[in-house]
Write a structure and sequence with these properties.
Blueprint (H helix, E strand, L loop, with lengths): L1 H29 L2 H43 L8
InterPro entries: Flp_Fap
Protein name: Pilus assembly protein Flp/PilA
Organism: Litorimonas cladophorae
Length: 83
């Protein structure tokens, strides 16, 4: 009799276990919080790419301006001006 109760107990646990597993899988599929984190990561990456592109462009222009200033200082005449 004790063995039979143990078998019934185990079979009931298996049924409850499969329901728990099914509930976990359902909640996992319906959960969208991970998607939100991925979206924020993509936004941050796009902002970083934009900042790098902007800094590169500004850096090139600043470098050109400093080269013009260095030429003006060494030759005594401004580049691009008539005279």
């Amino acid at each position: 009799m004790a063995l039979m109760c143990g078998v019934l107990f185990l079979s009931n646990e298996r049924i409850r276990g499969s329901n728990v597993m099914q509930n976990l899988i359902t909640r996992f599929i319906e959960d969208e919080s991970g998607a939100t984190a991925i979206e924020y990561g993509l936004i941050a990456a796009l902002i970083a790419v934009g900042m790098i592109a902007g800094a590169t462009s500004i850096g090139t222009k600043v470098n050109t301006k400093f080269n013009d200033i260095a030429t003006t200082v060494s030759t005594g005449t401004a580049s691009g001006t008539a005279g």
